[in-house]
Structures are given as C-alpha cells and as structure tokens.
From TrEMBL:
The keyword Transmembrane helix applies. Belongs to the TRAP transporter large permease family. Part of the tripartite ATP-independent periplasmic (TRAP) transport system. Pfam families: DctM. This is TRAP transporter large permease protein.
Amino acid sequence: MTIAVFTLSLLGAMALGMPIAFALIVCGVALMSTIDMFDAQIVAQNVINGADSFPLMAIPFFMLAGEVMNKGGLAKRIVNVALVAVGHFRGGLGYVTILASCILASLSGSAAADAAALAALLVPMMVAAGHKKSYAAGLVAAGGIIAPVIPPSIGFVIFGVAAGVSISKLFLAGIVPGLLLGAGLCLAWWWVVRQENLTPPPRASLSEMVKAVVDGFWALMLPVIIVVGLRFGIFTPTEAAVVVAVYSLFVATCIYRELKLSQLYEVFVSSALTTSIVMFLVAAALVSSWLITVSEISAQIVTLLKPFMGNNTLLMLAIMVVVVIVGTALDMTPTILILTPILMPIVKAAGIDPVYFGVLFIINNAIGLITPPVGIVLNVVCGVSRISMEDIIKGVWPFLIAQLIVLFAMVLFPGLVTIPAKWFSG
C-alpha cells in the first residue's frame, strides 16, 4: 500500500506540472497521512535538516567554479590543448571533443556547464570541417555527461550525503570509469566517421603543441591539485570545492585576465541561482526520504527483489535497468534523491560495496541526462548549437548506446571499478 501511495503521489504531482521539489514534499505528506502521523512541524524540520549538511557546501563552490571556467578562458584553453594533441587524426575534432570533455570533467563536475562550453566552441568547428551537425551535437552532449563521473562531481557529493558513503572514496573511484566512458565514445565516434570521406587537418607542429600546453598550464594543473589533495588527505571534498573555486577565480582574473571584475556579480548571481535550485531539491527530498525509512518501503522492496538477492550481478542488472528507465523521465538530482534511500538498504543487504554501487548509480544517472524525452544536457546543447531536438536525438544514439555498453560491462566485471579504486585510495 505504501509503495503505491509513494509512486502515485509523486507521479501525480509531477503530472500536474508541479516542480520536483514540491512534488517530493507532497509525496512525503501523502505518506505521512497514509501511516497516520501527519505533522507540519516534522515536514518543516526535515526540509531544514535536508540542507543543513557540511558536505553539501561543496555544491555552490563547484557551481561557481564551472561558471568561472566557462567565462574566464579556462575551458577555451583546454579545448586548444586537446586540438593540438589529437586534432590531426581522421575525425580529429570528435576526439578533441572527447578529450576536452574528460579534462573539463576534472575541473567543474557540471554536465550542463561543460556541454554548453563545448557546444559553443566545437560544434561550429565540426560542422565547418564537414561533419553532420546532428552527430557533432550528439557527441558534445554525450561527452558532457562524463563530468558527473570524473572528480570533482556534484552527483557524488549529493549521493554521498544521501547514502552516508565517503565522498572522497567516490571521487577517487570515479576516475577510471569516467575515462572508460570516454574510451567508449572514441570507439563510437570511430564507427560514425569511417563512413565520411573527410581530409584530416595537418598535425600541429611541436612549437604549436608547446605553446598550447604552456598557455593552458594553469587550467591543466587544477585536476592534478584535486586528485593529489584528495589522495593524500590534504583537504576534504568540501574543502576541494573551495580550492577549485578560488583557484579558478585567481587564474581567470589575474593570470588569463579574461574575467573582468565587472563580470563577477553576474557570475556569482548565476551560480547562486543554480545552487538554490539544487539545494531546495535536496532539502525537500529529505521529507520523503525520512518517510521512506519510517514507512519501511525499502524493506518491502527488498522483499520484492528477493529472487535476485542470491546473485549480486543479476541484482545490479535489475537495479541498473530500473534506473535507466527512471532516468528517461527525471533529472539527475531528483533521481538520486528519490532512489538512494530506497536502493541503499537493498545494496547493503546484498553485501554490495556501496562505493562500487555509487559509481555505477551516478554513471547511470548521468546517462539519463542525454536520454529523451527529458535529457537536460540534450536541451542545453540544442539551445547553444541551434539544432532541433529531433536531430540531436538521432545524432546521440550511437554514443548513448556506447556508454550504456560501458555501464553494463562494469556490472558484469566489477573489477573495472573496484580495482582502480583501490589503486587511487591506497
């Protein structure tokens, strides 16, 4: 009964056009009424407690860093480094997009911000080089979703807080899976461009390579600082977010000097608006999360999944399929907040490593950002690239399939995640 109330109240509120945050509160109130314990003070208290978390302080700083990198010239220099490194291969601009996506992912952690920056810079260049606009935009969108997987990752912060899992371990465990997603995109792009008869641009000279690396040195140092700092315990993930924001502000205003002091107000306001949306979602989700625990919905779902409990691979496959389906209708943040309190008790009961599950769960949610019809990153790239949703959906399919293959390969071979995670975490 409680599962039906939870599902119908949440979907019903969303069907009425209610924002996700308010739909989560309505869902919580419906559950409270069902188990006869409605109290407005409990609702208010849980909303306040939902945002009262030190690790969540990382979110506004990562949001700020993403805005600064896009407007302060860091993203542009990363693209230039990738261009001189792999731009001379057949379909080189596609490989540039993938390499730049991986590097940018290690700077901001925001899929939408990275995709917007790359779409503005690379889609016109790829079209001018003779590539189909649909494939160019689709590749940029697929590359953008690597951002929530390679640290720093806003998705890992939210999941870590909701699931009670070490955010530092999640960050370090996400490095190799993120690179594997990039490798999957490389294979998919190779398959796409082999049918095109395009002449690759000439290889960059040694002096051009050196100039690009020197020019982008300060931007390239940021992921090194983050990984080294986390690996050796110099700072926590929350402190890392502050380091990222301050470092990017310093580089953009004092070294590259592309971000003027007069633009700072606009940058701060933009990042604050985005942060407020995410934080209110997190706060509202705690109402339904608390009631999921009280009403024992997780225990009921564990009972339903008992046929899979004897085989962790089958259980993970079943969970990943469910998350893929949910991801077609919900954005990443609400999916994490809704499903984490339901799935974590199942994962713990089955003896699955929470860090391993968290990495696959975030990858799955990231893929949801490019699955139609909701796909937030698809919408962002559509707007920036001025392409129709129908065309970008046609162009993104090869890359979406490649990333799903990588995801399910990690389900079948957990060592792809767990072994590298041990390397980085020591």
